[in-house]
Amino acid sequence: MSNATTFFKKFGYFHGCARFPMEQINEFKQEFDVLFENKRRRFYAKFKEGNLLEANHDKNRWNMLLPSDSLMMKSAFFADNEIFDTLKSLFTKDFALVFFSSDISSPGSTFQSCHQDTNDFAIALNLPLVKADEVNGATHIFPETHRISAEAPFTTESNKFSDDQVIERANLLTPVSLDVELGDYTLRDLRLIHRGTPNNSREHRPYLSAIFLPTHSNQAPDFKTIKYGLDTFNEFKKQAFPSGRTDLIDYANTFGRLIMLNSSSDRIQRPIPQAISDHLPEDALYCLRFAHFEDEKLNQRIDRTASLSEKLREDIECAKREFNKLKNSNI
Ligand SMILES: O=C(O)CCC(=O)C(=O)O
Ligand SMILES: [Fe+2]
Fold first, then answer.
1. Structural domains in the chain, sorted by start
2. How far, in Å, is the centroid of ligand 2 from the Cα of 143?
3. 55-64: pLDDT as tens digits
4. Ligand 1 nearest-atom number relative to CA 117
5. Interatomic CA distance for residues 308 and 212, integer angstroms
6. Which atom of ligand 1 is nearest to the CA of 105?
């Protein structure tokens, strides 16, 4: 077992130092800054009215999916040899890159409550585009909390901790600030307790964020049903953000994530251009096998079944009813 794997199993994270060349990170940063500026402009134009968050989640925090037609995708940094080997040894079975995204803590962000991203085993790869520390909001982590207790062995089983239990566990421990330099990367078990911290600088703090999940088969719903789910997500956002209601915004964001989780990919409305896929190494194509490609033969690897499509359609209809109920409830 590599050092990275052993460390990760014990502590729930791994910090890889100076893995990526500075020039590459700077290129990513240049590309990212333009995308992020455009995203914020579009967001404010659409949702400024009544939006109390000033951002798309929590206080001054953003998630932004990254485009398929980008240097960041073409570079396949998420399937770097050292990282891919660690992922392979931690998942032991099949896995996929489900979210190709970014987490930005903007000036004025505040402490998040201590949380797990999920109760289920999954891994986040973060690539910081700026050096991060306690001034600009490096993430706080609580080492070893991905396991159900300090004595328990590493497993990939889900845990059942509630939000309150997670906070109780964290209250007994001291967090570590996961400070990072340009060129570093981190891997984090999504079950590990952590929190975003305030960004007291004047600059945004962007991390590229690639989320890998275990997969159990090469089956998924069809593109048409997934697109229906994503259209519904957009409809929820249109109603949630201008209302300024965080319950509706959280519902919409959670629903969007669920659609992508059900699809094992966030790349359905962002098909990967052939000019990019022709350059992707085999390991990257493996991680992205649930994505939508311009190159039809790459789409043939997944079996898009009627039963999964039907099940997803039912879930979407149910979510629409629940969203409307929530919207009409008095708060
Ligand atoms: O960006 C960060 O530092 C952490 C954000 C986070 O944990 C979250 O939004 O779930
Ligand atoms: Fe988180």
1. 1-216 (2.60.120.620), 219-331 (no CATH)
2. 14
3. 888 889 999 9
4. 10
5. 21
6. 1
